[in-house]
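Hello,

Following up on my earlier ticket. Below are the two sequence lines again, exactly as submitted.
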Amino acid sequence: MNIGVLAIKSFRNRKLSIGLAIASISLSVALLLGVEIVRNQAKSSFASTVSGTDLIVGARGGSVNLLLYSVFRIGNPTNNIEWHSYDEIRNLTGVKWSIPLSMGDSHRGFRVIGTDDNYFEHYRYGRDRNLALTKGAWFEHEDETVLGAEVAASLGYRPGDEIVVAHGAGDESFITHDEQPFRVVGILASTGTPVDRSVHVSLDGIDRMHKDWTGADDDHNHDPLYATSPDTEHDGEEEHDEHDDTTDHAVDRNISAFMLGLDSRAAAIGLQRRINQFEDEPLSAILPGVTLLELWQIVGLVEHTLRAISLFVVVVGLSSMLIILMTSINERRREMAILRALGARPGHVFSLILGEAIAITLSGIGLGIILVYGVFLLGHGWIARQFGLFIEMNLLTPNLVYVVLLVMLIGFLIGLIPGIRMYRYSLIDGMTIRI
Amino acid sequence: MQSDHIIRLEKLRFAWDGQSTPLLNITSLDVARGERLFVRGASGIGKSTLLGLIAGVIAGQSGVIEVLGQSLDAKSAAARDRFRADHFGIIFQQFNLIPYLSVIENVTLACEFSDARRRKAIARSGNTTDEALRLLEHLDMADTSVIHKPVTELSVGQQQRVAAARALIGSPEILIADEPTSSMDADRRAAFIELLFRECEQAGTTLLFVSHDAGLQGLFERAIEFDRINRPANGEQQDLQQVS
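Thanks for your patience. The regenerated structure is below:
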């Protein structure tokens, strides 16, 4: 039986208090690692919300705002783009494909996106992944709609159901286009991106319901809001202002934004400049990757706060170890005096205590790692469904290793406190056993 | 001359840090090899400190401490610890045992820190466990139901006998007992000391027995009043005289 066996037997003798210390460390480590993993995954899934798109174009305005409404479907476009501008740009040489996006309507809180077949064909997310249908087909007619996975799941829609679209984003919209319902023809597979929360209709479908709605201008009776304040329903939604019931040609249509894929990615910057200087109307073009980074820096504040909090939780977890070790010191002081009398050196005594702290820290970290990966392994399906977050199980990202090493270091440093204290005791106690 | 004395103190002075008057001021003390010496004194007057100095747990004295003809002063802290492991068996007043070790493990623990004692134990009984059992049997602890009890469930007398077995295993030259019987009742006390004497005699061990209990004095061949050999006040006066 050497000094290590002695340490293990002593450990076993105090399994409850040591077990509690290990539990509190493992829980705090699991939290810290969990936050790190979710943070990394959120960042990468954030960055993979849109891929393969070289430029996004909208009316002149902030680049982050454009990214938010076109990709994340948050907020509203400040202005619209005339169809002929879109038509001109998409026909420029070097442009491979384009996806028009028309926004401004909603269905029970989900955004309605007016677009065309290019959306289904060219929209990419993650690592160059295509959209796919789980049920039905992509829309062909103006009264058809294709739902994102989350829309279908949370509202319980199936192909063949009819839905009514409301003007404006949000649930509280008064103006509904209920004379012109859309029929669900397809449901998209889950992507973990805002596509899941979108209702897709054709640009003709958008025109159709607005034509119908503006066509009712002659008869104000069916719309009480219009009579009292004619502009209410247009505020913030200028997209519809230019609508005219006499024209149903696509040429006079407006869209909110469009995405461009180019033949060569290198051409993106040149084209961006060209679009920004577009003469017919003021436009802004953004490189999605660059703007995503810009946006992430804003989100990064929250990220750092989260990280700091979880690091503090680890410190609290390690403090519980300090408390347990310090309270055991008085009890173990006798033990150490016996060992000293038997010829143990103060260094032995020190290493026994420090070794214990190290063992507690390491087992806490080990259990914490098992715990966090266990939770993600068992729960990753649920997390993906609930939060659209796809957790990848790669164990050794440098970031995680760094975090684990940091926790280890703090644990060892904390272990020095009772270690040094016991070392001192062993020098002054000598042969007397203090009770 | 020196070889007759297993422990030799000369002009020993010791004070803890911050103490103005020395706790110990001993002109001389010799303990002969194989002797059984009783040192009597009230508690808190420096007996345990003296034992700590002799065993090399505490250092920082002035004067001479020789054990087995070797000066402890000349040794490093690590060497003193090794020296203690090899040559001393120590019994405390109480709480002698490590609570999470078995009776046998508590006894053989002494061999973990000293190869010399381990070798001697093995030479005697073949292995340390058998030597521990042999000693326990000699100390009237042969009952297997007692040996397999957790040490925390043993009576004080049984605990002290386990401690004695640990102090004796591997036949160290010196056995230091610091109030080993003070938590026992009177008849147990005498029996315990008899057992200790018998074992010391067999192994040729020198016994340094410290107690406040003058009633035990009669059992020993030599007894010393601690107050007679330790004169801290004199030391102070001498200091003052030297300064003035």
